[in-house]
């Protein structure tokens, strides 16, 4: 595939691997967190860790927007979906995320009209085509997907479409990073910055990492060579004792971000005082809700939802696993109450989560580690 | 600490070996998607309730012996939306689906039955069109449809029409196929480009606002099977047609049933470039997408090249390739060597392949 295969060249990958090794101090252990779920996917899909020396560890961060939705918010969505007049829409990979009492997929099987869409505009179109029904869009995602929800709402307002509303679960990237940096038991050497989020927010919001925490961050693209390249840029910074915000994904990410998108977000959304993250708990000012100008479209105001906080079971230690403080098998519920078929925490929900991967492939990973050593 | 880790791993493995139990409260779409959830339903409910020697093998077709005749018997229900799509339609699919299940058990298909479930109000021309397509597919394959049944249900109770077919075939005495015969060193063959059917259907539904020229691969595979039997003989270990759940699911079944490891060379798997592009955009792995005219075969190392050549010189097998091989380790797992020089594990599908947002 043109413009894709060029970013997957195995010879270039080997060269970058060699460069990374040459920048590594053999006795030092490096922990680099990729924040974005899309990066985690690329790392697994292409086997990127095979190109890295053993003392460079990638920690998979909290950037999968599907996995961080807490159980209570899924239950609220299901409560709305069960209204017989509602067509409830969401993105495909949200369907399997468990709430306190089943997932959207289960609710669909019980009779709720839940459909998956590829864009919020598809949901709006559904509202236009089904004027006798109410269409609700369950919005998720970081600043990457929030602008498309915002534009959809602007269009709904402009066209006076009354039977459309949004249950907003959009989250923002900087607060969880701050929360991670503030946690006393975590020591990260650097971050691989989220590429798509940064197309919207730009690179400036990460300044605090370098200024307040002396931690480098390199915003990276999503092809495997992008990731290896960004890791080599990180290793260069660490080697030279620098801590800077760098942009590896310059072909897509403007330093200032997308001003028009930011303006749209400003108009349609406002910050929630706090929001719950599965596995991480409450983080202040970490999510968006509809602004007063758009409150007519706010599904949370239009429908009664239980709004009950379903606590992650006390024994669930996703937070610690996410931060790399404990290994999956050290969690108290791992493999007993929490399995890929019946996941509790965010690390088990996504097939790329640290716990799900370990549950399925732990034995293999162990024997491979032994063979490598 | 390492002992505790070992203990946790051992506990998970013990749990996995327990017989699948079907404990779900509702049937969800995942039960029909061909992955882990389907397996739990089939093994935990159907197979345990109906258990008998022929069924317990859980192959694509049951192998039966009646008065010395070695028969193969299979059935397949077809539900697809839309009824007609580029490269095929539900009628052609209903014929090929069952013929192929019989064929990959090493049997020449002989007879087909058909049952129609039709929705009240269906345009009769639509039915005529599908019946004509079935007649044509059956005639081309040289397998007559010899018995049938018709039911009509109220409007809204089914998507136009469903078609259930069953087929009987006569097994070739030169081969005795079973995944249990797979050995380390064996080669894995794929008869052509993967993911064409599933991608064509996804695009034909028109929900994706993505236009690409992709046709379903729906076709009978018996001639390919015959070529393999003639070229590899008793070195032919097992075949399966990678429909729902795709190539990944078939290979995982093989690895688990034979207790071997398998490695697939990602770059060797034939994928039509347009299909690859569409899957890339949707975030779906072509290895999990359905095929309707392909087969995956495991062949002993001495006969692999001859088998490949035989496939490539058979119409429909021109793009066949050796896509991987069998090792002892890791038991029950399928690994992929990526084009990027890394390795990853190719797991069984958990539910439907859902497009990713991130």
Describe the fold and architecture.
The complex is a heterodimer of chains A (373) and B (358). Chain A is of the alpha/beta class. Chain A is 39% helix and 17% strand. Chain A is built from 15 helices and 13 strands. In chain A, α4 links the parallel β3 and β4 (114-116). Chain B has 10 helices and 14 strands. Helix content of chain B is 33%, strand content 23%. The interface between A and B is large, with 59 and 45 residues.
Proportion of beta-strand residues of chain A: 15-25%
Based on Cα principal axes, name the global outline of chain B. Answer: globular
Strand line-up in the sheet with most strands of chain A: 2-1-7-8-9
Kindly state the number of beta strands of chain B: 14
Question: Helical percent range of chain B?
Answer: 25-40%
Structural class of chain A: alpha/beta
- Give the class of chain B from helix and strand content and strand pairing: alpha+beta
Please state roughly what percent of the residues of chain B sit in beta strands, choosing from under 5%, 5-15%, 15-25%, 25-35%, 35-45% or over 45%. 15-25%
Task: Write a concise keyword list for the protein shown above.
heterodimer; A: 373 residues; alpha/beta; 5-stranded parallel sheet; 4-stranded parallel sheet; 15 helices; 39% helix; B: 358 residues; alpha+beta; 7-stranded mixed sheet; 10 helices; globular
């Amino acid at each position: 595939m043109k413009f894709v295969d060029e970013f997957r060249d195995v010879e270039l990958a080997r060269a970058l691997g060699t460069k990374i090794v040459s920048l590594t101090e053999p006795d030092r252990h490096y922990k680099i967190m990729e924040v974005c779920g899309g990066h985690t996917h690329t790392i697994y899909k292409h086997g990127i860790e095979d190109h890295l020396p053993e003392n460079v560890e990638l920690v998979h961060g909290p950037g999968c927007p599907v996995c961080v939705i807490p159980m209570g918010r899924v239950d609220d969505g299901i409560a709305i979906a069960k209204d017989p007049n509602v067509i409830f829409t969401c993105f495909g990979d949200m369907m399997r995320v468990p709430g306190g009492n089943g997932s959207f997929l289960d609710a669909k099987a019980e009779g709720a009209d839940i459909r998956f869409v590829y864009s919020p505009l598809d949901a709006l179109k559904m509202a236009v085509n089904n004027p006798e029904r109410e269409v609700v869009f369950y919005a998720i995602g970081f600043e990457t997907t929030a602008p498309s929800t915002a534009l959809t709402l602007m269009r709904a307002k402009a066209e006076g479409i009354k039977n459309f509303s949004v249950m907003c679960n959009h989250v923002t990237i900087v607060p969880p990073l701050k929360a991670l940096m503030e946690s006393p038991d975590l020591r990260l050497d650097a971050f691989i910055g989220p590429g798509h989020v940064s197309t919207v927010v730009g690179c400036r919001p990460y300044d605090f990492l370098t200024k307040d925490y002396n931690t480098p961050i390199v915003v990276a693209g999503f092809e495997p060579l992008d990731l290896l390249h960004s890791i080599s840029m990180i290793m260069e910074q660490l080697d030279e004792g620098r801590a800077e915000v760098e942009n590896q994904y310059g072909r897509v990410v403007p330093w200032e971000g997308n001003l028009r998108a930011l303006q749209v977000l400003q108009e349609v959304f406002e910050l929630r005082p706090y929001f719950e993250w599965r596995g991480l708990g409450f983080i202040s000012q970490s999510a968006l809700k509809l602004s007063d100008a758009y409150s007519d479209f706010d599904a949370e105001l239009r429908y009664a939802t239980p709004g009950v906080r379903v606590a992650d079971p006390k024994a669930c230690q996703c937070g610690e696993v996410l931060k790399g403080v404990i290994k999956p098998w050290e969690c108290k519920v791992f493999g007993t109450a929490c399995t890929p078929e019946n996941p509790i925490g965010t690390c088990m929900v996504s097939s790329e989560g640290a716990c799900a991967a370990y549950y399925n492939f732990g034995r293999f990973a162990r024997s491979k580690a032994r063979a490598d050593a | 600490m390492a002992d505790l880790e070992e203990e946790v791993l051992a506990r998970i493995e013990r749990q996995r070996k327990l017989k699948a139990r079907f404990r779900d409260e509702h049937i969800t779409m995942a039960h029909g998607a061909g992955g882990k959830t389907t397996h739990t339903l089939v093994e935990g409910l159907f197979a345990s309730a109906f258990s008998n020697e022929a069924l317990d093998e859980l192959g694509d077709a049951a192998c039966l012996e009646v008065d010395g005749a070695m028969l193969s018997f299979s059935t397949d229900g077809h539900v697809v939306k839309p009824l007609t799509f580029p490269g095929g339609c539900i009628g052609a699919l209903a014929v090929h689906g069952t013929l192929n299940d019989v064929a990959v058990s090493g049997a020449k298909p002989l007879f087909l039955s058909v049952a129609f479930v039709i929705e009240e109000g269906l345009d009769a021309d639509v039915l005529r069109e599908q019946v004509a397509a079935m007649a044509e597919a059956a005639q081309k394959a040289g397998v007559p449809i010899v018995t049938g049944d018709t039911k009509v249900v109220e409007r809204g109770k089914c998507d136009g029409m469903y078609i259930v077919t069953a087929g009987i075939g006569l097994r070739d005495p030169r081969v005795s196929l079973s995944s249990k015969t797979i050995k380390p060193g064996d080669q894995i063959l794929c008869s052509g480009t993967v993911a064409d059917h599933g991608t064509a259907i996804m695009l034909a539904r028109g929900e994706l606002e993505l236009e690409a020229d992709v046709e379903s691969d729906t076709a009978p595979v018996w001639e390919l099977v015959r070529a393999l039997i003639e070229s590899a003989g008793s070195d032919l270990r097992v075949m399966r047609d990678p429909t729902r759940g795709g190539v990944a699911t078939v290979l995982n079944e093989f690895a688990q049933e034979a207790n071997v490891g398998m490695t697939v060379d990602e770059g060797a798997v034939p994928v039509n470039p347009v299909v690859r592009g569409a899957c890339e955009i949707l975030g779906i792995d072509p290895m999990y997408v359905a095929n309707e005219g392909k087969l995956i075969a495991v062949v002993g190392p001495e006969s692999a090249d001859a088998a490949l050549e035989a496939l490539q010189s058979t119409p429909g097998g021109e793009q066949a390739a050796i896509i991987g091989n069998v090792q002892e380790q890791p038991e029950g797992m399928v690994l992929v060597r990526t084009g990027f020089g890394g390795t990853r594990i190719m797991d069984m599908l958990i539910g439907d392949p859902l497009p990713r947002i991130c």
